[in-house]
Amino acid sequence: MVFTDLEIERYARHLVLREVGGPGQQRLKAASALIVGAGGLGSPAALYLAAAGIGTLILVDPDEVDRSNLQRQILYAEADIGLPKVEAAADRLAALNPHIFVAGGPDAFGPDNADQLVEGVDLVLDGTDSFEARYEVNAACVRHGKPLISGAIGRWTGQVGVFAGQPCYRCLVPEIPPDAETCVAVGVVGALAGVVGSMMALEAIKLITGAGEPLTGRLMIYDALSAETRTVRVGADPECPVCGGGAG
């Protein structure tokens, strides 16, 4: 895969980076990623993957841009209010990097389109804000053997993990918490979305290029108020209904 002179100039800092270099940048150009949820987490993740030169970026989100999004969803501007998120996002990402292919799906991720969306990409980033949606994304990734990068934020705390086979996300969250909070109800500091969304993009870049040690089977938890980070290992549930003996 040959880079144009413009691409060589654009990706110069990657090309001289030992862990990426020419081969890693070629893998990025050949790779495809699906981002489910083009909101607080999907926005920075999409921007950094587009800037990094990932070849194909597919976004799925059924919502339109709302003024309340602009506090943290940095893909969008005031002029985008009322537009479908995937439409505004695709325009912004194409303007950021014309050397990549960007597509947007205006439908919600669900049983009708999950397999079609997941089977055609190399990895999936989940930035959705409901456990039901996260379960759907996780199940599709397990069915098709695709790595899943999952992120979540609320108030001042965020987390990101990578799931590839066992354990899966359902091993981490076997049941939907009865008292699950939403950002609409409890709020979230805007810059936290940038931190966790960027971490998601970074994990995707590591997986694609083979650099370093991804968070596979681990969960990184970031407390922004105390500026502390801890990483815990996720155990595989042998009776998990998605990846374990409970799958039927």
Number of helices, where a helix is a run of at least 4 consecutive DSSP H or I residues: 10
Give the tally of β-strands.
Answer: 8
SSE arrangement, N to C: HHHEHEHEHEHEEHHHEE
Low-confidence stretches: none
What does this structure look like?
- This protein has 248 residues and is of the alpha/beta class.
- The chain has one domain: NAD(P)-binding Rossmann-like Domain (Rossmann fold, 3-Layer(aba) Sandwich).
- 37% of the residues lie in helices and 18% in strands.
- It is built from ten helices and eight strands.
- It has helices at 5-10, 12-15, 21-30, 42-52, 85-96, 114-119, 131-144, 169-172, 183-186, 190-209, and strands at 32-36, 56-60, 101-105, 123-126, 148-154, 157-163, 218-223, 228-233.
- An eight-stranded mixed β-sheet has the order 3-2-1-4-5-6-7-8, with helices on both faces.
- Strand 7 and strand 8 (228-233) form a beta hairpin.
- Helix 4 packs parallel to helix 5 (85-96) and helix 4 (42-52) packs across helix 10.
- The chain starts with a helix and ends in a 15-residue tail after the last strand.
- The model has no long low-confidence stretch (mean pLDDT 96).
Q: Which features would summarize this protein structure in a list?
A:
single chain, 248 residues, alpha/beta, Rossmann fold, 8-stranded mixed beta sheet, 10 helices, 8 strands, 18% strand
